[in-house]
Design brief:
A 7-stranded mixed beta sheet has the order 1-2-3-4-5-6-7. The protein is of the alpha/beta class. The chain is about 25% helix and about 20% strand. The longest helix has 21 residues, at about 280-300. The chain starts with about 35 loop residues before the first helix and ends with a helix. The protein contains 8 helices and 12 strands. Helix 2 crosses helix 4 and helix 6 (about 230-245) runs antiparallel to helix 8 (about 280-300).
Length: about 300
């Protein structure tokens, strides 16, 4: 049984941006799955299969134990954010079906950033769903080539994977809409050049909350890379951390790695699912880790 049970009726939506009362959001058929926190206990691999999980309103986790993939449903088609690794594409599609939805109803494929653990499965999911791939211009070359940009701190860490054709570009602050559900892109470069966060409103039982899928903002790199040697890269990362900290409201924070925002623990009721300070706290942790990384490099 999920920590948050499925709803069997349409969800009411207040007349606010991204979700309107004129829209009845489809919800998954009543089903019983092993709670995701229990199913993934001791398993956090990028490809470790996980059961689907209801997060809030029309938002579902359909990824793996180590990587988030989000399904956002509407009566006129769905959004799917992130595809985990290549091998996970079929499992993500299977989780969508287990929830009672058809993967071919996914209209837009989106991405947080262009690393293999989040973008590797996009090509497979594009074939399965037939969806339109939408990304920022800064992520396009890496997504289509299947390899990271030469300036990416993680260049060389992983072998290239199958690329995915980008059908539509989106800019910072621009929106995508299916029916009355609207998602806004937030440019958040730093962890990768094309890093993108997403925000929207989802409603459940008449209560509408602002949800933020905040991209990874950690200073992670290949062993030989020194952030202190690349001030032109550190500057946008600092700006992104500040930008994420300032996102308000941020009622429900979700991150590409579930552990970065304690997603499974929150779904299990061990921690609050809703936390207005979630984005600020997430950014504060990233800022501390960046400063520690720079200090460590300076000490060598």
């Amino acid at each position: 049984m999920f920590a948050r049970p499925f709803l069997t009726a349409g969800l009411a939506c207040a007349l606010i941006a991204g979700c309107t009362s004129a829209q009845t959001t489809p919800t998954a058929a009543t089903a019983k799955f092993e709670p995701i926190a229990k199913a993934c206990e001791g398993r956090d691999g990028w490809g470790d299969p996980a059961p689907p999980a209801h997060i809030y309103g029309n938002v579902y986790m359909v990824g793996t134990c180590g990587i988030v993939s989000l399904l956002i449903t509407t009566p006129k088609g769905h959004f799917l954010i992130d595809g985990a690794i290549p091998e996970a594409a079929t499992e993500i599609a299977s989780n969508i079906r287990k929830l009672g939805f058809d993967p071919t109803d996914v209209r837009y494929l989106l991405n947080s950033h262009e690393h293999v653990d989040h973008a590797g499965g996009l090509a497979g999911l594009k074939r399965i769903t037939g969806a339109k791939m939408v990304a920022r211009a800064e992520a396009k070359d890496a997504l289509e080539s299947g390899d990271v940009h030469p300036s990416d701190p993680q260049k060389g860490l992983f072998d290239p994977v199958e690329g995915v054709k980008v059908d539509q570009l989106i800019g910072d602050g621009e929106t995508l809409k299916i029916g009355n559900q609207m998602l806004t892109a937030i440019a958040t470069p730093g962890h990768s050049p094309g890093g993108t966060s997403w925000r929207w409103t989802s409603c459940e039982n008449g209560k509408c909350l602002k949800i933020v899928y905040a991209d990874s903002i950690s200073a992670v790199s290949a062993d030989e890379y020194r952030f202190s040697d690349h001030p032109e890269y550190v500057a946008p990362l600092r700006a992104t951390i500040s930008k994420v900290a300032a996102i308000q409201p941020c009622d429900i924070l979700i991150t590409p790695h579930p552990s970065a925002s304690a997603l499974f623990e929150r779904l299990a009721g061990e921690m609050p699912l809703v936390s207005p300070d979630g984005c600020a706290e997430y950014a504060a942790g990233a800022k501390t880790r960046l400063e520690n990384r720079l200090a460590k490099e300076a000490a060598k």
